[in-house]
Design a protein that fits this description.
Radius of gyration: 26 Å
Largest sheet: none
Strand content: under 5%
Shape: elongated
Oligomer: single chain
Number of strands: 0
Helix content: over 70%
Order of helices and strands: HHHHHHHHH
Length: 207
């Protein structure tokens, strides 16, 4: 094959590859690295990438896409963490109602469950920063609060001979608020702290 034709074909192949990387939202520096690893000269790879990524309109579009993707990722992560927080709280409440004891160490498990759920639901490229660990910590604290509540609510339902679903009614909420001192003690602050710490560390350790 004619050398010029071969060079032209290679150039077209590299352009197609670069375009695909761009369309898939791959960052410019990573695209340059991929092109270089594919056999393209590093200087030409950078020039080609700049021609695709460097236009102001393109930069604005990529920034908008990045914000949009980040927002969706954050919502997905928070949703997964909230689901884990509610599930852990219900489990805690059931154990407390059945045994008559609110085992504080379950709070650590609740925090760990929230942290693992948030991390598993977050793509690797969106795991940087403190916002996700802080969200996980907040959800872990919420889980501990709900765990205490469900324990009291399920106890109330059992004592009244009612279905556990009464836990989701104003009657159970009123019972919990009126008797909070029986179900939440100052010592429980330690379990709050350990739960929050577990969730934060699990999400943050890979950043």
């Amino acid at each position: 094959m004619d050398p010029n034709a071969t060079a032209s074909l290679a150039k077209g192949t590299f352009y197609a590859q670069a375009r695909q990387l761009f369309d898939n939202g791959v960052p410019m520096e990573r695209a340059i690295r991929v092109l270089t690893e594919s056999g393209m000269d590093s200087g030409r790879a950078r020039e080609l990438a700049k021609s695709l990524y460097g236009a102001p309109k393109v930069v604005a579009m990529q920034a908008a896409k990045s914000v949009s993707d980040g927002g969706r990722s954050l919502a997905r992560s928070a949703g997964a963490g909230l689901a884990a927080a509610i599930a852990a709280a219900i489990v805690w409440g059931v154990i407390a109602a059945v045994t008559g004891c609110a085992f504080g160490f379950i709070a650590i498990g609740a925090g760990a469950a929230v942290g693992l759920a948030v991390r598993a639901a977050t793509p690797e490229e969106h795991q940087e920063g403190f916002h996700l660990p802080l969200i996980a910590a907040g959800l872990a604290m919420l889980s501990v609060v709900m765990g205490h509540y469900f324990g009291a609510a399920f106890y109330f339902a059992h004592r009244q001979g009612m279905t556990p679903l009464v836990a989701f009614t104003p009657m159970a909420i009123g019972f919990f608020l009126d008797n909070m001192a029986r179900f939440v003690r100052p010592f429980d602050l330690i379990w709050f702290a350990l739960s929050i710490s577990a969730a934060f560390k699990i999400v943050y350790q890979e950043n």
